[in-house]
Amino acid sequence: MTDGEVLAREARDVLRKKDAQLKEALVGRLEPVYRLLLRQHTDQVRLLRRQIEEINQALAETMKEHLAVLHRLSKIPGVDLYAAQELLAEIGPKAAAFASAEQFASWAGVCPGSQESAGVNYSHRSAKGNRYLRRLLCQIAWAAIHTKGTFFASLFARLKPRVEGKGAAWAVAHRIAKIVWLVLHQEVEYQEKGSAPPNERTLVRKFRRMLKEFGQLGLDVRALLDQQLSNPA
Prior knowledge:
By secondary structure, the chain is mainly α. The chain has two domains: 4-51; 64-230, no CATH class. The chain has helices spanning 4-8, 19-26, 32-62, 67-73, 81-91, 101-108, 131-145, 151-185, 200-216, 221-230; strands at 115-117, 120-123.
């Protein structure tokens, strides 16, 4: 495919708004050597995507026995199936290594530190903790912040004027870490306490998304829900 207009129509997301610039950038002749390089890079991308999919499938197969745990974690705003799998792999199905939510948050490195002298606070930096898990929790926090009507979105909005965006997001990550520990350690379900409870359409849309994500990896959530309904205790 070498037609600039045809290529421009393949644009996605925000690139669709830059139709004129795309067409201008795509006009011209692509020399054979550059076509070769582009084809090689495309082949590498396809290979990496296939390998990622193989890893995801193997991971899903390994975690089938923890389907109920993954389902509970996925109910937390900002946590999709892949994030739930990563949390489970890092912490374990019951977070048994941590006696409290605060201990887990500290280990993950999302528990803000505090150095004070004569009532003056000199540092709010968090301990280093588990860098991989800290990065994951921060990604989850930002996703939760952008989920309208949730407790985390309102918490961020309330804290942002006082501690700016980064500090407010850090506080959200800290709160999410504590909730993750509760969901795992005490086997509880996440209950949304946002400023505006989600309407039925929002709940149905989220449930369908969860079914799709789990189904793509061969995980049958419907069977789990049927089992829970037949055995509520």
